[in-house]
Amino acid sequence: xxxxxxxxxxxxxxxxxxxxxxxxxxxxxxxxxxxxxxxxxxxxxxxxxxxxxxxxxxxxxxxxxxxxxxxxxxxxxxxxxxxxxxxxxxxxxxxxxxxxxxxxxxxxxxxxxxxxxxxxxxxxxxxxxxxxxxxxxxxxxxxxxxxxxxxxxxxxxxxxxxxxxxxxxxxxxxxxxxxxxxxxxxxxxxxxxxxxxxxxxxxxxxxxxxxxxxxxxxxxxxxxxxxxxxxxxxxxxxxxxxxxxxxxxxxxxxxxxxxxxxxxxxxxxxxxxxxxxxxxxxxxxxxxxxxxxxxxxxxxxxxxxxxxxxxxxxxxxxxxxxxxxxxxxxxxxxxxxxxxxxxxxxxxxxxxxxxxxxxxxxxxxxxxxxxxxxxxxxxxxxxxxxxxxxxxxxxxxxxxxxxxxxxxxxxxxxxxxxxxxxxxxxxxxxxxxxxxxxxxxxxxxxxxxxxxxxxxxxxxxxxxxxxxxxxxxxxxxxxxxxxxxxxxxxxxxxxxxxxxxxxxxxxxxxxxxxxxxxxxxxxxxxxxxxxxxxxxxxxxxxxxxxxxxxxxxxxxxxxxxxxxxxxxxxxxxxxxxxxxxxxxxxxxxxxxxxxxxxxxxxxxxxxxxxxxxxxxxxxxxxxxxxxxxxxxxxxxxxxxxxxxxxxxxxxxxxxxxxxxxxxxxxxxxxxxxxxxxxxxxxxxxxxxxxxxxxxxxxxxxxxxxxxxxxxxxxxxxxxxxxxxxxxxxxxxxxxxxxxxxxxxxxxxxxxxxxxxxxxxxxxxxxxxxxxxxxxxxxxxxxxxxxxxxxxxxxxxxxxxxxxxxxxxxxxxxxxxxxxxxxxxxxxxxxxxxxxxxxxxxxxxxxxxxxxxxxxxxxxxxxxxxxxxxxxxxxxxxxxxxxxxxxxxxxxxxxxxxxxxxxxxxxxxxxxxxxxxxxxxxxxxxxxxxxxxxxxxxxxxxxxxxxxxxxxxxxxxxxxxxxxxxxxxxxxxxxxxxxxxxxxxxxxxxxxxxxxxxxxxxxxxxxxxxxxxxxxxxxxxxxxxxxxxxxx
Length: 1031
Description:
Blueprint: H1 2-5, H2 7-10, H3 22-34, H4 46-81, H5 96-141, H6 150-184, H7 207-216, H8 220-232, H9 238-255, H10 258-271, H11 278-293, H12 295-298, H13 304-311, H14 316-325, H15 331-336, H16 345-351, H17 355-366, H18 372-377, H19 387-393, H20 397-411, H21 416-434, H22 442-449, H23 452-461, H24 478-485, H25 488-496, H26 511-515, E1 530-536, E2 548-550, E3 565-571, E4 578-583, E5 594-598, E6 605-613, E7 621-630, E8 642-644, E9 648-655, E10 661-672, E11 693-697, H27 717-725, E12 730-737, E13 743-744, H28 760-768, H29 788-793, H30 806-817, H31 821-826, H32 844-850, E14 856-861, H33 866-872, E15 877-879, H34 881-895, E16 902-906, H35 909-918, E17 924-928, H36 945-954, E18 959-963, H37 964-969, H38 973-979, E19 983-987, H39 994-1002, E20 1007-1010, H40 1013-1030
Parallel strand pairs: 11-12, 11-20, 12-14, 14-16, 16-17, 17-18, 18-19, 19-20
Antiparallel strand pairs: 1-5, 1-10, 2-10, 3-4, 3-6, 6-7, 7-9, 8-15, 9-10, 12-13
Helix pairs in contact: 3-4, 3-5, 4-5, 4-6, 5-6, 7-8, 7-9, 9-10, 9-11, 10-14, 11-14, 11-16, 14-17, 16-17, 16-19, 17-20, 19-21, 22-23, 22-24, 23-25, 24-25, 32-34, 39-40
């Protein structure tokens, strides 16, 4: 779904109407599936195929039209580099100023070529995704695709052949330019670039060549004298002479000879009755525009003569003003004349964003009549774009303002037809500016962007009827898209403006259900093998890091105009699989990691190779460069069996010949190592009993600052026994590892020293120091068990009523803890005497041995997480993750009772992944904060309910446990999770409210984790009794 949501972002805005409508095709696909006959379960995809084939045809036509325009431009540039005109071609020199202008034109053409290539790439991705979905559905239902894909395959093949030919031609052109630049050997001395070229004819041997040289030298007196001589000698016809002068004027613009250009345009044209037309005007605008747009790409040392011309004389705008003055009364016809691309001068002024030139043209046209400026602004070129279109497309605000000001009289006219034409064009422009073509309002697009200030402005100055208008593909209103994209501030603004919350989209979902936001991969893993799991990019939201970043290329490197880049990812082991990624990637890779089997990770390395499509052979690729990353454990940096919680790595990509940096690749990885346990027990499938399973959170409940009810110390044997007695079928406890790898039942950051940096004695001392002497009576009404030897040898302690020595330990531990980050933020420490009924801390082994087998366990594997370490103010370092998991699994395999149901769970995605790979004995559930405010967990795999479902399905987990806020607000999400084949549970303070527990039970939830076990058990029992009576 992420590709569909981001589809508008991948589009070239002005071409948006000509894209294959991927969201619409997905909608038709889902409609066909829902409408399938239940008896046969055979969907009718006829409408999908018809729509797809029609849009493929439209896409092909549009692509071919733009390809032809690019091909024409390449031919024009070839002609400029090797001109064939009758006047100046035979003796034409080329100087560095002209060469730089041609180079800028080629760079501009390359950018437009890349735009068309990107257009093709996005459409290709969309079409292939739809065909892949159709083929998958056809296989599952026994249908055949009946050859529907043949037309698309043929179009792909033809396009690839023509594009290779085109890129080859463009490469030749760029190579020729670079070669000429090299041959000129431009130096910083007083030489002209023409003095460095080979075997030129002398100026005196050819009058036309001499004229051309005078223009290049920008020598007006010499040029004037030579023109007089040429005209008076009658060596050419009058028409031929006029053509020579016209060509000289064009050359003066190209050469940057501004004095010569001013002389020719202002004096010579009028003296010899030469008409100024749109060609020179267009040329002047284009050269001026390219000078500003592509200066950084072509900045190089010119010869002293060209550098002098570049900095002296009239500016381009003054020169253009001079040319416009020559148009006089006939100017209106010249301004409306179009070139081969259907464009007039104002089109080019708008394309390059030259407000001064655009205003000059509009002022001149207004002299011919009030309607002429509007005619110019709304004139269409061969691509059906007006100058106003181009100003919006290229984001030239000053030009847009000038155009709108010129259009004001048209809006005040009584001519209704003109008004309608203008309104249609403005509506079209708005669609380009905000990228909508499926009924999205401006408010919808602003909400989608997440720009709070835009939404606020539209709500204050816009039309409120737009507030609940849905777009046509999904049926989403602005509130829907704000919720889908997770824009909290925007959603609040819309709700404050009274946006409706009870609207359902075409799938039957409400905005709330989207706010608490697939393939199933049943890949089997060997328990005796290492695996390297790699995600491209980062997995923490908020980091502005691209997975693949390429640097800007120099003109020399621009020679290699290509049909696309690919990246090959592989491991340095023989027989390793190789993964190809087309760049830039259009796929959300969060839930599509690469998994490589590895024999020896300490000696292996990860290789990234950048490939480029060949310009001569289809399906052939040339190596550009590569990079390598060692994947062995960097534990030596942090101590034995320690590793960083930051799993991201960045690798520079080096060019294969020069070793220059081409770019960089950022990836996130984790290594799964096989557990060395002698005999892993067989899998124990999780059987979910009918009705809701009540789980005691940390036993009888998590300790809180509230004193409204009695609280037993959390994660203690006493607490677990009491939870079971009050109605919990499962008890949940957190399990972490001490310094010497003992498994303790505690949280990760209770002190300012992480648990994994304490040994077991240090950890238990915080509990023992508070414990009273003697044998306190259990809350359950019986004495705590002690070995017989202890009972015999112990002496009767002094009566507690006669001393307060037992309170010293409590005060001591409280004083030690009160300045820790956790105590300062909460005002207490869990399981401390004085605040709670304290009991000794316990270990996993004790729980497995001492608790009755009728009590099921939900063991949360508490591995430190990056955002928690930052919040706790400790270093982001932990026990090596494989060591951490293996110790827990070894204890479970050794002490686990076969009759006891045990569930493993974790908030840490990497823990869930490794548990799923290392063993199939116990079911694994992923716990997520999705939908729980405030958002502190930046983990992208837990960013929404939908994302968590994808993660669980990808790694074949048993279920998910969500923050209860989301499920209480949107109970139907329970069924969404269960329809994906997953068990659904919830946790959090909302579960301590009986009505909320009943709401979730009514929705069919499988597991509810609560602190108020007795209260919720009674509530659920009453609900189930009532439900049975009503059945």
